[in-house]
What does this fold into?
Amino acid sequence: MLAIKNVFNKFFEIVGENVLSKLEGIGSFATHFFSIMYWTFKSPYRIKLFIDQLYFIGNKSLFIVALTSLFSGMVITYQTYIGMKVMGAYTLVGPIVVLTIAKELAPVFSAIIVTGRCGAAMAAEIGTMKVTEQIDALEVMGISSRQYLGVPRVWATMVALPLLNLVFLFVANVGSWFVGVELLGIEEAKYYAKLKEFVDFNVLLEGLIKAGVFGYIVGLIGTYHGFKVQGGAEGVGKGTNAAVVWGMIVILILDYFLTSLLVRLLYDYGV
It folds into this structure.
């Protein structure tokens, strides 16, 4: 009986520690969120830092976003054509591909790319400054580290992602047109015939709103894990990995809830 009691005690001890750890993490992230919001509206405004981050996140990500979008559009078109041809509805390839890219692929893939490239960089840069006590030096000089390092990165990511989303959408549809019309032989008139019927401004707006929300989340998670780093170079590595993993997980989970909300607002209620 004593052995069984010890096993149960150990079990509840482990569960309790994990629950408390997770609650502490949620509280810490909430504190970071409100801190970023607070310092966003406090002067001095770090416009130059914001522009520098916008250049790094937006311009420096253009090539990989364009390359990914080109082949994503091409392969989605090929697979859609195969399915639609079986049902004799290959004239719907154009609108189906545009809807898929505009509503899902463009915002989600763009966000995942930025998470892997820029979210990791944010965590690594801020984490390195944390372990080398540069952040402590900023605070000693009376400069808020979250205003100086966090706010420009979070808002630059939020602005850059909708722009990258538009690039993804355009390049993916160029690739889609090339495969559909030039390689698969769909008549161009038929390729575009149903676009006006199925695609409207709300389709584009849904993708842009998703991209903006994802951008804010990516910036928030990347900076949070940077400020959370402890324990030297090993801690920087763990923080960088956590920023990428959690960024991708949250994007994919949030995508479902955003889709559900936006469909109701934009289509059911006509907001």
Summary: Residues 221 and 243 are 6 Å apart (CA to CA).
